[in-house]
């Protein structure tokens, strides 16, 4: 595989580095962010074993409760 050198501002480099996974090259990051990643199934299951589903449900319930309370307050005026 051939390589090409590019110039980035320090800020752009820091941002790209922050997006880079532990076992990921900068080329991997650019391909992932630019849609160049061909394996569409790669991310499936990435959140398994986490509490993301429960946190999402909890936030949604809190949001809905807040909306109902605000609606009730506004309907009294």
Q: What letter string, H or E per element, gives the SSE order?
A: HHH
The helix fraction, in percent, is: 40-55%
Count the strands? 0
In angstroms, what separates the terminal alpha carbons?
68 Å
Radius of gyration, in Å, reads: 21 Å
How is this fold's topology laid out?
Layout: H1 10-19, H2 26-33, H3 52-75
Compact summary:
This protein has 77 residues and is mostly helical. The protein contains three helices and no strands.
Give your account of this protein's structure.
- The chain has about 80 residues and is mainly alpha-helical.
- The chain has a domain at about 10-35 and about 50-75.
- Helix content is about 55%, strand content about 0%.
- The protein is built from three helices and no strands.
- It has helices at about 10-20, 25-35, 50-75.
- The longest helix has 24 residues, at about 50-75.
- The model has no long low-confidence stretch (mean pLDDT about 90).
